[in-house]
Amino acid sequence: AKERTLSIIKPDATQRNITGKIIDRLENAGLRVVAQKRLKLTKEQAEGFYAVHKERPFFNDLVSFMTSGPVVVQVLEGDDAVAKNREVMGATNPADAAPGTIRADFAESIEANSVHGSDAPETAEQEIAFFFKDDEIVG
Ligand code: CMP
């Protein structure tokens, strides 16, 4: 069924000017960009977005990385968008990511791993609402 997911192109990718290459992979997988903006996250935004990870040892590094440069946040739409996006991203750690996935081909490390994607439809809804108003999403 038609579904939406939240995608973030991370600072390591904006820094290397490869946002277009990443969007090409998403579109080729049948996902449609129905909302998009480029912004520099504040510390508060990054902490809020990743609140679920706040007890993790990597939390502070994650927040500083995610605020180190611009990100591109997107709403992707398509059949089984959450799962499809995760498939095209590949595993969190690029060392474990399948050949041909975004992270296998572009990510630098488990932290600088080029993209984020929602992990389930329920989280997708929350993550989309974190960044976008309804009228900013045009399907
Ligand atoms: P993301 O999908 O954005 O969600 C949380 C992020 O934490 C994850 O991608 C990784 O980039 C980052 N991260 C950094 N270190 C780790 C780690 N040791 N285990 C899991 N995620 C990590």
UniProtKB/TrEMBL annotation:
GO MF term (any one): nucleoside diphosphate kinase activity
Primary location group: cytoplasm
SUPFAM superfamilies: Nucleoside diphosphate kinase, NDK
EC number(s) on file: 2.7.4.6
PROSITE patterns assigned to the protein according to its UniProt record, in alphabetical order: NDPK, NDPK_LIKE
Cofactor: Mg(2+)
Catalytic activity entry: a ribonucleoside 5'-diphosphate + ATP = a ribonucleoside 5'-triphosphate + ADP; a 2'-deoxyribonucleoside 5'-diphosphate + ATP = a 2'-deoxyribonucleoside 5'-triphosphate + ADP
Boundaries of every Nucleoside diphosphate kinase-like domain copy: 2-139
A Pfam family assignment: NDK
Locations listed in the record: Cytoplasm
Positions with a binding annotation for ATP: K10, F58, R86, T92, R103, N113
Domain of life: Bacteria
Keywords: ATP-binding, Cytoplasm, Kinase, Magnesium, Metal-binding, Nucleotide metabolism, Nucleotide-binding, Phosphoprotein, Transferase
Catalytic residues in the record: H116 (pros-phosphohistidine intermediate)
Assembly behavior: Homotetramer.
Function noted in UniProt: Major role in the synthesis of nucleoside triphosphates other than ATP. The ATP gamma phosphate is transferred to the NDP beta phosphate via a ping-pong mechanism, using a phosphorylated active-site intermediate.
Similarity-based family: Belongs to the NDK family.
Protein name: Nucleoside diphosphate kinase
Natural source organism: Fodinicurvata halophila
Taxonomic placement: Bacteria, Pseudomonadati, Pseudomonadota, Alphaproteobacteria, Rhodospirillales
